[in-house]
Q: What sequence folds into this?
């Protein structure tokens, strides 16, 4: 499991220690020079999504799962002691009885916690989407103000303006609020994506990190309009810090790159480091400006030399993630993800008839993958049983009759791929926006189409000779296989991570938190399943089309009526991010009962479920540890 997964960190002001928050609610103290763990403190049962350190005083604060905040005191040995626990679930309602505010049942993963730069004050987010200011000492706290923010713009980040009581607030859908003493005094609408971080440069100038894949320069005095840089990243920009020694900013991205940014033009200057997985928190040492600390979503913490782009030290105690699965012609299930291995699952007779479960024996095979990358998608050719693996480093590998071979190395991370089952062709979508038609036999690129946006998913309709492909924030595009050019664009779409044809005229596709249905014959898109709370990671339906299950980025499984799309039930899946869901088809289902499926993801295990009386029932798990 992922109980030791690192979620967040902050560096002490003297840069002797790193305070790390993990998924199980612990604060770990790491000796920064040696990069080893020297102590731990259990603050909560749940993830620590953000850690902040006071610039002047010996306090650190953590943003905890379950709408909780903890204030700790640190000593010169790096030991952390909890002094105050704060429950944010109803704090806004108790303060001003606001009934109009957004009440968020499903907690977003935000970093809305910040100390005042001088005083014993802390800004946090309440469950009612308010900015709550707290004053505290070593034993108690009191609410100073509680500021309502537009309920249509959930708060993502807060930051006190340097040496001021003003607070910058970043939200989903791209709004920035400047508040003071409980009042909103300025508003900017920068983009339509999440605002993640504010970093002070000089005077009234801040640089802003956003999911819009660009950096914004913001003059909070209002004398100059925001300067919005070019889109340089292939995915969300999560965090940005300022290196005053080099007069440049350093930004992290979910595209697995760490970038050097010109804080004046907001343009990318170069890639500092290519990480093994998507990155969030970064810190550049003031005492050693060529040393960078980076947290990856694989649960690792890395110490990087920016001059050589080499890893100096690392801490990672998490299993390899499972990213993709498919059923082969022989009934076996193939699963791959991080690292060099692929798991081959064979269904066997249920060992415990009383439980009526399908059991699997697993065999782990090592293929010729690069160990520092991961398989984003695998695909099976249902005529020949050839298997293709698409990797985050751009490699395409073919596995046939027990032999693996690399057929291509594309210039960007592979997001999706699919066989043409009638021709020796593989279609590949990559993060740099290129759709590639690839020969299986020799790896030659037979044709390409290029989008202005990163491409995230594709689905082949062999009957119509059409390939559907999704742009990250652009369109759903339909490509004619003969000309390899677009013939249709659908605008009712964004953030589509999965697309699947139900039949020759019906395409299901995710669009943020919705599942949509496209009628290709009539060129009409309609909402199918509405607002699951976060972007849809994967979905599947049973052979009889009675049920559809989907899983989202909030780790939630939804059971839906296939015909109407009505949500019948939902449950939380695993402690860490879920990436896929797969129906156990009748021909390999040994339980004697229908309607079994499993999920997989960051924890490295399979979670089994069955549907009982229109409810999702847990049916055990299998650790693969590939």
A:
């Amino acid at each position: 499991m992922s109980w030791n997964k690192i979620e967040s960190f902050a560096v002490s002001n003297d840069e002797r220690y790193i305070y790390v928050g993990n998924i199980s609610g612990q604060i770990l103290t790491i000796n920064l020079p040696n990069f080893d763990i020297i102590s731990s403190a259990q603050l909560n049962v749940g993830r620590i999504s953000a850690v902040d350190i006071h610039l002047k005083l010996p306090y650190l604060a953590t943003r905890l799962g379950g709408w909780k905040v903890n204030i700790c005191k640190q000593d010169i040995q790096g030991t952390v002691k909890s002094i105050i626990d704060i429950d944010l679930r109803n704090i806004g309602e108790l303060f001003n009885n606001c009934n109009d505010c957004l009440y968020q049942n499903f907690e977003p993963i935000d970093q809305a916690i910040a100390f005042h730069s001088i005083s014993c004050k802390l800004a946090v987010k309440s469950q009612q989407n308010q900015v709550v200011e707290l004053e505290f000492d070593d034993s108690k706290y009191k609410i100073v103000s509680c500021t309502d923010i537009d309920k249509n713009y959930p708060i993502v980040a807060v930051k006190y303006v340097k040496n001021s009581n003003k607070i910058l607030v970043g939200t989903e859908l791209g709004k920035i609020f400047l508040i003071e003493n409980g009042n909103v005094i300025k508003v900017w609408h920068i983009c339509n994506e999440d605002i993640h971080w504010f970093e002070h440069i000089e005077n009234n100038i801040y640089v802003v990190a956003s999911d819009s894949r660009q950096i914004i320069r913001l003059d909070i005095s209002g004398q100059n309009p925001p300067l919005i840089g070019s889109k340089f990243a292939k995915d969300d920009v999560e965090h940005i810090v300022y290196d005053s020694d080099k007069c440049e900013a350093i930004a992290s991205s979910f595209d697995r790159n760490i970038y050097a940014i010109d804080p004046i033009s907001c343009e990318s200057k170069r890639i500092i480091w290519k990480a093994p997985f998507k990155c969030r928190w970064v810190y550049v040492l003031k005492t050693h400006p060529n040393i960078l600390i980076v947290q990856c979503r694989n649960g690792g913490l890395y110490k990087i030399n920016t001059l050589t782009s080499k890893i100096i030290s690392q801490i990672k105690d998490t299993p390899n993630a499972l990213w993709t699965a498919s059923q082969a012609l022989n009934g076996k299930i193939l699963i791959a993800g991080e690292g060099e291995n692929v798991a081959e699952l064979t269904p066997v007779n249920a060992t415990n008839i009383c439980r009526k479960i399908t059991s699997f024996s697993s065999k782990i095979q090592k293929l010729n993958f690069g160990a520092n990358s991961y398989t984003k998608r695998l695909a099976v050719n249902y005529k020949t049983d050839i298997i293709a693996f698409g990797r985050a480093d751009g490699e395409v590998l073919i596995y046939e009759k027990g032999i693996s071979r690399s057929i291509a190395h594309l210039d960007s991370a592979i997001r999706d791929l699919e066989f043409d089952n009638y021709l020796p062709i593989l279609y590949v979508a990559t993060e740099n926006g290129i759709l590639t038609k690839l020969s299986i036999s020799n790896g030659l690129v037979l044709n390409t189409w290029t989008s202005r946006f990163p491409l995230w998913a594709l689905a082949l309709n062999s009957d119509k000779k059409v390939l559907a492909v999704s742009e990250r924030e652009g369109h759903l595009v339909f490509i004619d296989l003969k000309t390899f050019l677009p013939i249709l664009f659908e605008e009712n779409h964004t953030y589509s991570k999965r697309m699947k044809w139900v039949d020759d005229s019906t395409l299901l596709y995710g669009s943020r938190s919705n599942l949509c249905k496209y009628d290709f014959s009539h060129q009409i898109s309609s909402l199918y399943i509405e607002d699951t709370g976060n972007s849809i990671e994967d979905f599947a339906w049973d052979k009889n089309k009675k049920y559809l299950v989907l899983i989202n980025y909030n780790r939630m499984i939804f059971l839906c009526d296939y015909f109407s799309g009505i949500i019948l039930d939902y449950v939380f899946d695993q402690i860490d991010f879920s990436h896929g869901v797969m129906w156990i088809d009748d021909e390999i289902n040994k339980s004697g009962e229908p309607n079994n499926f499993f999920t997989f993801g960051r924890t490295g295990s399979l979670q089994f479920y069955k549907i009982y009386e229109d409810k999702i029932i847990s049916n055990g798990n299998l650790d693969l540890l590939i």
